[in-house]
Amino acid sequence: MESERPRNPHQPEGASTSEGAPAFTLTEKAIEMVKAVMRREGVVGYGLRVGVTGGGCSGFQYHLAFEEQPSDGDMVLDSGGVRIFIDQASRPHLQGVTLDYVTALHGAGFKFFNPKATHTCGCGSSFAT
């Protein structure tokens, strides 16, 4: 009998792509904070570009930016009214990843939870798979 894989506590219930695999998602707190930053920066209605580039101390690093429209070939998702744009090269690295907003004694900010990461650095912005 196959055992059921434990659910990622940062992965909202039922969030998946059309293929059934978990999609990139945002927690409720991340949605709230993305919308607050959009209002503050005057980019309400833009999408959140989420990407992965080579570099950082662990091999890859996450990238966040606001963009008015998706680029050709982007996967476009919606999470709580926030449009998310993911390019083709970043897609496999972001599959199953959840973006949260955390508050701690040392500060607050966005944090990526990547179940496929084999190593992450202390800053939480760099990872290896």
Q: What about the largest sheet?
A: 6 strands, mixed
Order of helices and strands: EHEEEEHEEEE
Q: Overall mean pLDDT score?
A: 80
Number of helices: 2
Poorly predicted ranges (pLDDT <50, ≥5 residues)? 1-19
Folded structure, characterized:
The structure is a single chain. By secondary structure, the protein is mainly β. It contains two helices and nine strands, in the order βαββββαββββ. The chain has helices spanning 28-41, 91-94; strands at 25-26, 47-54, 60-67, 75-79, 82-86, 98-104, 107-113, 119-120, 126-128. The strands form two sheets. It has a six-stranded mixed beta sheet with strand order 4-5-2-3-9-8. Strands 1-6-7 form a three-stranded mixed beta sheet. The longest helix is centred in the N-terminal third of the chain and has 14 residues, at 28-41. Residues 1-19 have low confidence and may be disordered.
